[in-house]
Structures are given as C-alpha cells and as structure tokens.
Structure to design on (305 residues):
C-alpha cells in the first residue's frame, strides 16, 4: 500500500502530522508502525524528546525512527519533531502560511498577492538557465512526454499536459501513484518523464522515477535540489519556495512549479519554430469556432500564438 504524498498530508489542516501518521499506518513497515503508535499514544512528548528516547520507547533503532519520519515526507527526525510542535501550538492556524484568523479581506488579499509576486521573483533569480536549456532540449527530442505528480503537484502536471499537447507533442499526465508506477515500468527509452514534487521525498514518485530511469528514459525533476527525487533525475529544476507544507496547504510552491512548466512550454514552442506556431494557431481556430466566433475572430487567431 502506498504512503500518502506529503502534499496530500499537508492539506488536512492544523493536525496534518497526526492525520498523516494515521493515514500512513497501513503502508508502514512493522518497525515503523511501532514508532507511529508510540507517537500517536503521546504526541506532546515527542517535540521535547531526543531521537534516542523515542527509539527506546518504541523498541526500535534510531535509523528506524528516521525512516519513519521520511516515510511521512520529512527530511528527518528534526523536521518531523518541529512539524509536530507546530501542530501542537497551531491548532487553529489558517490553511495559508502568514494569514491570521483575524485578517480582513484587504489584508489577506495583499498578503497572498505580495507573497506570490515575491516568490516568483525569487524563483526567477535562483533558476539556472543552463539547466532550463538542457531540459528543453530533452523535451524537444522526446518521442513522448510523461508527467508525474501527486496531490497539489498533480494539478501542476495536468496543467502542463494542457499546454504541451497543443504543440502536437504526445503527452500524458499521471497523477495517481499506482498509475504512474505502472506507466514507468513500460515507458520507452526515447521518452522523457517530468516528475513534479515540492519535497521530492514521496516514496511513490521516487520509485516510479527510478523505474523510468531503469528503462533508459531521461527524467526532468521539478523538485527540491537536495531531495531523493533529485538524485534520480537527469536534469533538476530546483527553484525553492519558502513554504511550510508540513502544516499549510501548498500554494507558493505550486505557483513556482506552474511557472517553471510554463517556461518549458514556451521554450518548446520557440524550438518548434513555424510548425509549432501553426499548431497553436489551429488549436486557437478550433476554440474560436466552438465559441461561435466570427470570421474576423478566426482571422485574429491566425495573427499569433
């Protein structure tokens, strides 16, 4: 049974860590389940305890505690302990980081918009254009493109599919872990996989990418640069978003990932030249006709992408 994706766990609200442990229990190893049951029995004691104390109380080794934390999407025990402490202190926290319950609409609008702009500008500064060029070159030479994403990252994968198919590229988005696991097992060597994950620590997507690489397919990772997923990728586009997805619903990271996929789509459109432009025009003409547009509207659609 697959472990819940960190993005999915993060959407459960202020009690996300505890809810995530309960949801993950059936898929954990027996030794990891001992740690989970120990945490669930007394979650308030964990933030104050060293890893050795939790391991002793659960009757397992310290590496087992670390594996348990990583199975939930955390980098290790320290991050898990901090997330659990935030849960205990933030029982009535809002779903969006930085938003308070007493914020009025004007304040929360300004906060969300300002933070979105700041996050995208930070991503622009941190992105390596040489890696973007390498990613576009891989995509341009692919026989087909497969997009893997789960939870909030699945939305990004679906959006990228919507953009890329209009360029005439065979592309599919897999947002279910079992489905992309099966797809990775049969992906051809001349295909390219784009794997999207904020944390890069979801066991399902890391295993799927490893299968795809085993079949010879190149993999572009839109993920954290120091993650297990990044270690499996041919090219990593690792723009970081300052966001705590252990407690809050992913928002800023999703915007960054959407923008990165937009950059790749734009790069492919430019690389495709006149042929790609003509395909974009044809898709626009079909939309104009479907909306009951006039001949004048159709002519306008022919003037550009």
């Amino acid at each position: 049974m697959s472990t819940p994706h960190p993005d999915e766990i993060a959407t459960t609200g202020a009690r996300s860590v505890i809810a995530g442990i309960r949801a993950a229990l059936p898929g954990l190893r027996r030794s990891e389940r001992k740690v989970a049951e120990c945490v669930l029995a007394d979650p308030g004691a964990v933030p104050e305890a060293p890893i050795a104390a939790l391991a002793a109380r659960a009757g397992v080794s310290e590496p087992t505690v670390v594996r348990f934390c990583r199975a939930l999407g955390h980098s290790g025990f320290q991050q898990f302990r901090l997330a659990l402490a935030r849960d205990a202190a933030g029982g009535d926290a809002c779903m969006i980081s930085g938003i308070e319950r007493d914020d009025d609409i004007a304040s929360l609008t300004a906060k969300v918009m300002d933070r979105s702009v700041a996050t995208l500008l930070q991503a622009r500064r941190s992105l390596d254009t040489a890696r973007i060029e390498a990613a576009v070159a891989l995509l341009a030479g692919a026989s087909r493109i497969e997009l893997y994403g789960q939870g909030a990252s699945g939305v990004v994968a679906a959006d990228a599919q919507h953009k890329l198919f209009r360029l005439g590229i065979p592309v599919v988005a897999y947002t279910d872990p079992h489905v992309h696991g099966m797809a990775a097992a049969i992906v051809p060597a001349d295909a390219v996989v784009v794997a999207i994950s904020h944390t890069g620590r979801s066991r399902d997507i890391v295993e799927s990418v490893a299968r795809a690489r085993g079949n010879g397919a190149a993999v572009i990772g839109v993920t954290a640069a120091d993650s297990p997923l990044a270690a499996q990728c041919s090219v990593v586009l690792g723009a970081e978003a300052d966001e705590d997805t252990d407690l809050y619903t992913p928002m800023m990271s999703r915007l960054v990932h959407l923008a990165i996929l937009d950059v790749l789509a734009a790069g492919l459109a430019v690389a495709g030249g006149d042929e790609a432009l003509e395909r974009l025009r044809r898709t626009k003409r079909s939309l104009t006709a479907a909306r009951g547009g006039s001949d004048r509207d159709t002519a306008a659609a022919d003037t550009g992408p």
